[in-house]
Amino acid sequence: MELNTENTKTSPSKTNNTLFWILASVLLVLGIVLNLVFSNLAFAIRIAGWLVLSCIIVLLIFQTEQGQKVWDFAKSARIELRKVVWPTRQEATQITLLIAALVVVVALILWGVDSILMWALSLLNR
After folding, report:
1. In whole angstroms, what is the distance from residue 119 CA to residue 124 CA?
2. Which of 61, 65, 34 is CA-nearest to residue 48?
3. Which residues contact 71 (CB under 8 A, 6 or more apart)?
4. Using CA atoms, how far apart are residues 59 and 53, in angstroms rounded to an integer?
């Protein structure tokens, strides 16, 4: 009988997933309650507390299977982003000017069509 120890090391068990989600939810509710209880405390102190609590909650969520999937997706997206060929400044400027010119041309065409239709309708109203 062969034990597959590789899967148990890379992905947390279902019990751990549930435990981490419950703990993250409890911390979130606790943060909301404490924010209401200490509403007379300085705003900056409450924001600092929320930042610390948010980091702890995010770390807990990243320990779950879904959190690991999100982390893997983010790493893959970063790798793909490095493969993108970005336009030079000159190319970006030329494309922007071309689009602006096309917008003006289309606006003039639509204005002309609208003017012709309004003239035609005014002839019908006579």
Report:
1. 9
2. 34
3. 62
4. 10
Query: Could you give the CA distance from residue 33 to residue 39 in angstroms, rounded to a whole number?
Result: 10
Quote the CA–CA distance of 96 and 90 in Å, as a whole number: 10
Q: List for the chain the helix, strand, coil content (%; round to 5).
A: 85, 0, 15
Beta-carbon count within 10 A of 4 CB: 7
Token code pair at residue 4: 């597959």
pLDDT in tens, 25-56: 999 999 999 999 999 999 999 999 999 999 99
Q: Which secondary structure element, helix H or strand E, spans residue 46, and what is its range? A: helix 43-62
The answer to whether 27 and 60 have CB atoms below 8 angstroms apart is yes
Query: CA 63, CA 102: separation in Å to the nearest integer?
Result: 50
Q: Which residues in 93-103 are b (16+ Cβ under 10 Å) and which e?
A: eeeeeeeeeee
The structure's pTM equals 0.53
Q: Report which residue type is found at 43.
A: F
